[in-house]
Input
Amino acid sequence: MSGLALPVMPDAGVAPSLPPTETPSAILGTYARAPLTVVDGHGAELIASDGRRYLDFTSGIAVNALGYGDPGLQSVLQDAASGLIHVSNLFRTEPAEELAQWLVMHSFADKVFFCNSGAEANEGAFKFARRWARAVGGPVKHEIVALRGSFHGRLFASLAATDRPRYRAPFRPLAGGVTIAERDLGRLADTLVPETTAALVVEPVQGEGGVRVFDPGWLRELRSLTAERRIALMLDEVQCGLGRTGWLFAYERAGIEPDLLALAKPLAGGLPMGAVLLNGEIAASIEAGDHGSTFGGGPFVSAVARYVVERIAEPALLQSVREHGEWLSATLNRLAEASPHVRGIRGVGLIWGIDIAMRAAPIIDAARETGLLILSAGDHTLRLLPPLTITRPDLERGIGILYSVLV
Ligand SMILES: Cc1ncc(COP(=O)(O)O)c(C=O)c1O
Output
């Protein structure tokens, strides 16, 4: 992948160069950025402005499922760029219709709503759940229940459903009618009140909250409980969906079907796109004017997303993610035995968390210095999210670097 537009320096005769990473950035400091300016990427590697190559186990935080510079993705992007980029949602376009049809054909859903990010998908799904709940139970049936350790986004309702005091406290009051409940079936049974609860929202694998993989049996219990009480089960698969667990949708692993599903991150290969998938009953309660998005589901992003979902759904790709997951499970268990710093590992497919005794930040820095990019999930958990197309030798190389840092 190349073609990043670099600023051309006005003074003739001086070779254009990137601003050194140490110069103050004009970008608002909402992220603690690594001292690294990325200029290119190939496969599972990112290349920095100083020419250093890094093995990337972050995948743009689960976005770059196909790695960098995928030739098929490049070609679809080029074709799509020569067609319509945007048409308002007042009109139909073939790419959006076809993508929605594809998602319906491959999931539990009857209808799809397109938007631009994970938080937007969750906010939309909350609205759809409330709209349906009001229709079946009246205005008191509006509560959204989220789980301890959850992360659903940074907007006001998705933040209210996010269990991170540090993210929430400076922005109170958050949206009302959202409760955080313990991850305990007995206590949840008390919290999920049929008359007042509209939806329970769950990440089948809590990503930001420490890579907690919910047991399929537990998810089935939640499905039964919500169905019995006529509460919408909404799954947030923004991070763990679309192949990350080795299943196209993480819910398939548990053998359940949700009522609502939020997707985003890898959906359009790095272009911003989110989607809410709805079952027929909830979809039937939504009317024109209930929700909207100017950009959502434009023809350009939809055409690219159609290619991405087809690639991710290839049985061979999903099979390789499951096999990598089994290999990682064995290999990281050995790492845990060999390292005095590792307290535990959790994961499935290509989403893994490693709990460590010290703070995650210096280990992430040390891994980067040794050529591997990884993430945290909380203060004491390292998170690995390699591209879904990663090869076994690259995976081995990355885990080798982790060994050198942790053992
Ligand atoms: C499970 C989950 N939901 C929602 C979001 C928010 O997505 P976005 O940053 O696209 O708004 C994230 C982002 O990390 C996520 O992991």
